[in-house]
Amino acid sequence: MNIAKELLKAVSDYPGGYRVIYELIYERNKALGISYEEQSIRNILTRLKKKGLLSNKNRKWKITKEGKSLLKEKKSALVRFTPIKNYNKNIPKTTIIIFDIPEKKRLYRDWLRNELISFGFDLIQKSVWFGPSLPKDFISYLGEEKLLQYIRFFKATDSDLI
Question: What is the reported pTM?
Answer without folding.
Answer: 0.54
